[in-house]
Amino acid sequence: MGRRKVVHVLEDDTGAVIVQTAPGKVVTHRGGSITLPCRYHHEPENTDPARIRIKWTKVTDALQFEDVFVALGREQRVFGSYKGRVFLEQAGPGDASVIIQNVTLEDYGRFECEVTNDMEDDTGFVNLDLEGVVFPYYPREGRYKLNYHQGEDACKQQDAILASHSQLHKAWLEGLDWCNAGWLEDGSVQYPISHPRDQCGRKDTPAGVRNYGYRHKEDERYDAFCFTSKLNGKVYFLKRFKKVNYAEAVKACIREGSAVAKVGQLYAAWKFQLLDRCEAGWLEDGSIRYPIVNPRSRCGGSQPGVRHLGFPDKKFRLYGVFCFQKNKDETAGGTVMTKSPTDSLTKQKSSSSMATNATRGN
Where is this region: Disordered (predicted)? Predict the structure, then answer.
C-alpha cells in the first residue's frame, strides 16, 4: 500500500519500448477519481519524447476496443464519454498514466495502455474495479421475463449496470443467496447459492455460483443481476402522517425537490449510507422495499439486507416513499490523484457481512 508496483509486460534488448503497468487492479467508486498507472522506457534510452504515441483503450468482453485517450507529443485527444474526464498524469519522463475523474459505472472493466515509438510498441493492461453492491432484479411482470437486452435496460433504469461474474462471485463470498437465475454482463446466466436446499441448488451439492453458461440473448428469459456503486446524492424515507399511493408518492418527492428513489439507489444507500428503515416505501419501479442494516425483532428477519414486498396495486395507500435527492455540487469527482491509486482509496464503514442475504424477502 502506498507504493506503485509495476511488472514488465515485455522485455527486449533490441531497442523496443517497454511498458510497465500495475498488476491486479485499481479500485475506486462511482464519482471518484483514479489513476490508471502505466510507465514506459526505452532500451537504449535515446528516443525523442515528441515521437512517442500513448493510447488508452477500453477492452470489452467481445474483445473489441473502445478508444479512450491518445497523445502524440503535445497533441492529445479524448473520446466519447471520457471527454472532460481523462487526463495524462504527467508525473515525469516515461509516465503514460491517465487520471479518470468522476468515474461512472460504465468505466468498470479492463483498459489497455499502448506506447508506440516509430515501428516499436508494447502494451499493458489495468483492471478498474468499483466498490459497490450486487442485487437481483425482476420487473412487475414477474420472474424470468427478461431477455439479455431487456435485463441490461432494466438495470440501467434502476441506476445500475449488469453485474460481471467477478462482482457476483464477490457478492456470493459475502453471503448473497438467491434462488433465481439472472443475466450477467457477459451474456451468461448464473445465480449464487450460499445455503443449498432441495428446491434451490440441490441440498446435496456444495454452495457456490451456479452457471447455466452463455444463453441466447434474444430468445431466452431470466432475471438480471445488477451492480451499482456510491451515489452522487442521498436516499431518505419521507416522513408523512399518512400513507400514500404511488402517484401521491411521486408528487411528494417532487415537492421536496427530489424524485422517487430507484432500486439501485436504495441498495447503494443501504451499502454506503448505512440507510436503515423499518418502514416499507414505494420505489420508482412501483415495488415496495425497505433497507435493514441492524436487524431487530419484528423488523424483517435476522439478517441485514433490502427487503422486497413485491409490486402492489399502485392505488393502494399502504406505504410511505423513499426519495432520492442529488448533491447540489455535481462535481463529486473528489481530489485528483497524483500518487499511487492505493494512496486515495476510500474506505467504507460497511462490513462485508452486510451483504449477507442482502435481498431477503424473496
Answer: 334-362
Whole-angstrom Cα distance, residue 32 to residue 46? 37
Name the helix (H) or strand (E) containing 165.
Answer: helix 165-173
CA dihedral 67, 72, 77, 81 (to 10 degrees): 30
pTM to 2 decimal places: 0.83
Phi, psi (degrees; rounded to nearest 5) at 173: -60, -30
Judge whether residue 360 has pLDDT over 70.
no
pLDDT tier, 241 (very low <50, low <70, confident <90, very high otherwise): confident
Model confidence pLDDT, tens digit, residues 120-144: 788 999 999 999 999 999 999 999 9
Q: Which amino acid is at 140?
A: R
pLDDT digits (tens, 9 = 90+) for 140-160: 999 999 999 999 999 999 999
List C-alpha distances in Å: 60 to 32, 90, 91, 110, 228.
22, 27, 28, 7, 19
